[in-house]
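I hope you will forgive my troubling you with a question about protein structure. Here, with my thanks, is the record as I have it:
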Amino acid sequence: MEEDSIRLPAHLRLQPVYWSRDDVAQWLKWAENEFSLRPIDSNTFEMNGKALLLLTKEDFRYRSPHSGDVLYELLQHILKQRKPRILFSPFFHPGNSIHTQPEVILHQNHEEGT
């Protein structure tokens, strides 16, 4: 699988957990065309995105013996692409909530030192 971004159709760019049954069927059809896979029986994947994410690699292989590995790896790649990124690490200080904004914590620490 390439490291580049996979260009999914616009309506499938949501997190897979939010995909409907139709979205899953469209993703299968897209993957079949995009990666020149053997025809995939979409009835074996008649489920929404939440259920799709519960499938193991073995489940994918069982449901699609010729394309299961590719589909599983493709889904993992999509999940990795869509993983939220943390922009900063939280600051921990006794008495401060981990939900406190970093600027507030820094300001409080500065006041404590005076």
